[in-house]
What does this fold into?
Amino acid sequence: MIYLVYRMRLTSRAQQDMKGFWAWLEERERWFYRDLPSVKGVRWFNTVIGESYVLECWAAFEDEAGWGAYRTGLATLKRDADWETRRTSQGEWWTFLDSRIVGDVPCEVGFGQMGASNSSHSPAAPSSRAGSGPA
It folds into this structure.
């Protein structure tokens, strides 16, 4: 698996309306990834010590070809004026700081929800044990 990682700083609007921001983020995730099937999982992280009001988004892909399919799909969606207007309005809520691509290590290390017990060994993949908790 490889992961596209974005870091974003929340705007003053988001900081002043956190309830509105979280509702917007939930809605954004539903429409943004809907037509991008090469994205195999998404995880969000909120900085709790260090840079205030910074989020990380980890989007998982099976391989480089999956990431390429994502880029192609994104280019297609951007040609839709309504979709692109909606996408670019995210600047009201955050400013992109940086991005990177990282990959899994080739050995069995890690544990728990984010570690090797997941089917893909990734922080972005959904837990392979979802719904198997105590009854």
